[in-house]
Q: What sequence folds into this?
């Protein structure tokens, strides 16, 4: 695997659609999802075959990702399932998309405002030159 930039995130791995799920947080989502896929992490995910990355939220700080992980672990299963299905109703594996081998299989985020919102923000000077 190539050396990649750390990607802090809270994530959900699943064994299959509507199967066993695992919630975790990591400082490097690409590496961690690869490890789950390959069964390189001993314990729950390897035992239950949780190698399909079905949901994640990126964070700037690891402490925030850990707080979110702990909160999600207290949720009931129906809420966790709904969280996954809001953007990934087919429970598609997101790892190939993360590493650039496939297009993003998820539904667009209804809160991102789309291209029109992006262009308006750009025109209004809300987005700086990068």
A:
């Amino acid at each position: 695997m190539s050396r990649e930039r750390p990607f802090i995130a809270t994530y959900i791995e699943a064994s299959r659609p509507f199967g066993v799920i695992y919630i975790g947080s990591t400082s490097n989502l690409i590496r961690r999802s690869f490890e789950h896929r390959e069964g390189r992490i001993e314990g729950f995910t390897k035992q239950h075959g949780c190698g399909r990355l079905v949901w994640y939220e990126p964070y700037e700080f690891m402490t925030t990702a850990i707080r979110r992980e702990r909160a999600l672990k207290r949720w009931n299963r129906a809420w966790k399932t709904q969280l996954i299905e809001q953007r990934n109703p087919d429970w598609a594996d997101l790892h190939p998309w993360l590493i650039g081998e496939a297009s993003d299989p998820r539904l667009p985020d209804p809160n991102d405002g789309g291209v029109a919102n992006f262009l308006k923000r750009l025109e209004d000077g809300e987005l700086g030159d990068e």
